[in-house]
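User: Last request for today: this protein with pyridoxal-5'-phosphate, please.
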Amino acid sequence: MRCAAGIEARQVNELAINIDPIQAGGRLTADAMKAVIAYGDGYSVCDNCRKPNRLDYISKPPIAEFHREVAAWLGMDTVRTVPGARRGFQAVARTYVDKGDPVILTSLSHYTEFLAVEESGGIAREIPAGADHIVTAEAAAQKAEEVRRESGKDAVLAIIDMVDYQYGNLHDVRAIASALHQYDIPVLCNGAYTVGIMPVDGKALGVDFVVGSGHKSMAAPAPSGVLAATAERAGEVFRTTGITGDVTSRKFGIKEPAMMGCTLMGATLVGMMASFPEVRERVRHFDTELANNRIVLSALQSIEGTRVLSEMPRKHTLTRVDTTASFDTVAQKHKKKGFFLASELEEKGITGIIPGATRVWKFNTYGMTTAQAQYLAAAFTDIARHNGLNVA
Ligand SMILES: *Cc1c(COP(=O)(O)O)cnc(C)c1O
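Assistant: Here's the final one, the structure of the complex with pyridoxal-5'-phosphate:
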């Protein structure tokens, strides 16, 4: 089947159980698929745009209402949609960071946080995670102190991942933010792996900003995301334009420079909106997701030699394992080398782990049914047994 010459129809999530860490939370709902078709045209949400002409004021489709609902859902005062979590980091970094300013990240930070800092001329200062791959409030305070001592000024911003992409560990953002606020450092909670997956309450976390990724965790098309702010910070990051043309004397009303006026204008936004009722409901059932993760993880742990590198018990479905002493010993002798694992999984209708990886790799069980989790668990132990590994 083809969309057009040379473009095959993609059927990954129709034909397989997909455990790709970055794709599990972004799969569209059926309603989002309908929205993508209906709002695929350029500027399609602009049919009923009226004064004061800004995306978040449009009431048909109910974009204004969506903004209010998402802000309340995240325990924040104001929200804007952005083309990806990274564009949220960028808007905030551009607001607070000048050349040479230190910005606090962590040793588990995503690369897009570094790029946002770099693009604003800032300097990245990482809070080191502990041996358990957890970032603590103590380490955050120590870093803030170190920055003050070494740069003669305080960091102007901190970006802290609620759940990091490397281990899927949950970090105590509330305690970290409280420590950093002692230094008056605004704190952005990076919820790329949490907003739309599990409950996130920015007020309870005591953060200045919450960023979410639509295409990673809110069952929305790419590129999409949200940037939420407290009332105090909203006036800073969502400041309105003051520029005037010298020939025409034109002004641009209430457009926001950090958002470049309007952001998501079609399928991305309406897709995210269409999924929102289901997303808001699903975060309330994260315990079921963790139970499914346990089914798969126990099976992996029953394979002799397998180690879990993520924190235990798991608080998120993204999990990192080390199978150097199990699946990799098979790879050493197998004619397909390290590709045997992905290949045997593929034969069983499971996709999403990096082909060739048999040492350290990640998987995400988010969104699967319990029957699928049991099937996946059995697939791992079957492959292990079939290749001569001991299974408890
Ligand atoms: C995926 C990811 C991002 C980037 O999200 P986009 O929405 O693609 O910009 C940022 N931070 C973390 C921790 C991520 O896992």
